Asparaginase
Amino acid sequence: MDANPILAEAVRGNWVENRHRGAFVIVDADGNLIASGGDVSRPVFPRSAIKSMQALAIFDHHAAEKFHHRSEELALACASHHGEEEHLNNVSHFLERMGLSASDLECGAHMPTNGKARAALRAAGQEPSALHNNCSGKHSGMLSVALAMGIDPKGYVDREHDVQKAVRAAVEGVIGEGLTEDRCGTDGCSIPTWAAPLSAWALGFARMATGKGLSEAHGHGARALFDAATTHPHLVAGTGHLDTLVMEAFEGRLMQKGGAEGVQCGAIRDKGWGYALKCDDGNMAASHAMVAALLLKYAQPDAAQRSVLEQFVRQPTKNVRGMRVGELRAVGF
Amino acid sequence: MDANPILAEAVRGNWVENRHRGAFVIVDADGNLIASGGDVSRPVFPRSAIKSMQALAIFDHHAAEKFHHRSEELALACASHHGEEEHLNNVSHFLERMGLSASDLECGAHMPTNGKARAALRAAGQEPSALHNNCSGKHSGMLSVALAMGIDPKGYVDREHDVQKAVRAAVEGVIGEGLTEDRCGTDGCSIPTWAAPLSAWALGFARMATGKGLSEAHGHGARALFDAATTHPHLVAGTGHLDTLVMEAFEGRLMQKGGAEGVQCGAIRDKGWGYALKCDDGNMAASHAMVAALLLKYAQPDAAQRSVLEQFVRQPTKNVRGMRVGELRAVGF
């Protein structure tokens, strides 16, 4: 297998300590290549980076019409939230409105991603619930699909459940190619994740940004989801996170979402471009440096946007005493 | 730069999600190559993997004679300990015997590596001290060098302090080549770390295992340090850690030590071979899979040793609900 290019490196003192390889691609909604690096035909698991694409099942099955999903709820359906108060309150409300509760979520429980929220939970002597799971908004959206379909939500995370079939069909519709069982795994939150070429994920985001090549339901849904995510960037991730800070800075021009193991996807909405990026070794911080460099070069940032991106393009490394000892930085863009 | 080979991969379901490249080398004390993969001439920061080599300064300056370092203390000088009770007690005792205390340590404080020790500290509402720092044993050894040299220990972590000059000279003596300021960084615990070719680190460990090519003080010291580490594997790391489990299983035949950012070094003592390995992207779990595969192939493990190594060669990945969803495994050995 040919090696992808080095797209980030960690420097300590005056010497490179680590190297992170990866691939990236930017396309328009017709599939025209805007830029790329590395092998963009290699299928990769998109993980949480395509939650907005998975959420299109909500529109295929008229769940948004039935339950009148609020914009906050659509943002949470696209989110890997950090378990802060605003996230928990909105997910609880989302479930309540459907007559459901945290006990209907099948994502499992983990400690909040946000440090302060974790410390507060520990200080209160409480265990995390499924609400704290970063995927609880996405799962609430999937539960709304089950209810709108009039089927039993139980087991909705399983690959053979009609909800996951609906999610798979929505994603296949957007990227324009089939997902296959020989490239399938289980995600952290127990739903299936399907590998597809990096270029297919980028194309899907370009189509979602423009509506080109999409069904009417998907075109409408994609706009509603991207509008929701970019209107509520804090709900999509959390305090201090790249996705939140970058979407805040771009004020609607940019949909940006990370996924586990070094995946970054999104759309430069005003250009109608979709992008997808994967760090080969799964390092998240390196993928942040990479996607920030990509946006710095291709998203025409203004000074304020540039300043946010630059925080991630070069990330200082500190040692135990807080001394700056090096940096993780994007290279090759 | 040519790409190193893929030496570990993470599989999710039936598809490879992440790839980890790296280089490894095994040599004897005359520098004869036993096995290698990738670019072994590329200088790498050894980080904590060479604490035993740094500890030779103790013998150069007769600190071991002056303070009669116990075997436990020599093991801790080579250690990245997990902050468990046995570690803290021994480091405290080490410092006390020299008339010093935790306030003389300049490594900084961090939470214990061991999960139970962390939870206990939190439950007690206490902040970690420098004793909990995984490097506190190494720093105690360095303080003993300062006292044996009759100099002020203050600032002993600085590159220009006589203690660090002594440590640098000891390492240069063992690997047989100079360390240079243009390949230098600051380690997590604030002392300098110097990059040298992977092959040089392997050669140093082969020399330490055999005494060949070493001064009398280094030959004696290396034997004492390796004996101490392999007699007290729990002091060198902690409960459940690869270094501890593997050294326990090999009952003195093997010196094994990891360093931050995916470095693994050691010696197959009965063969007189040294080895060094670096995962290019710094992933520790991947470096564990790699070094376990290396030892499985080259260290002639018996059934019990094989069983310990195999736990690390293939490491199951679980999701939030504890389902097994994939594995991280070594490849290409």
Q: What stands out?
A: The radius of gyration of chain B is 19 Å.
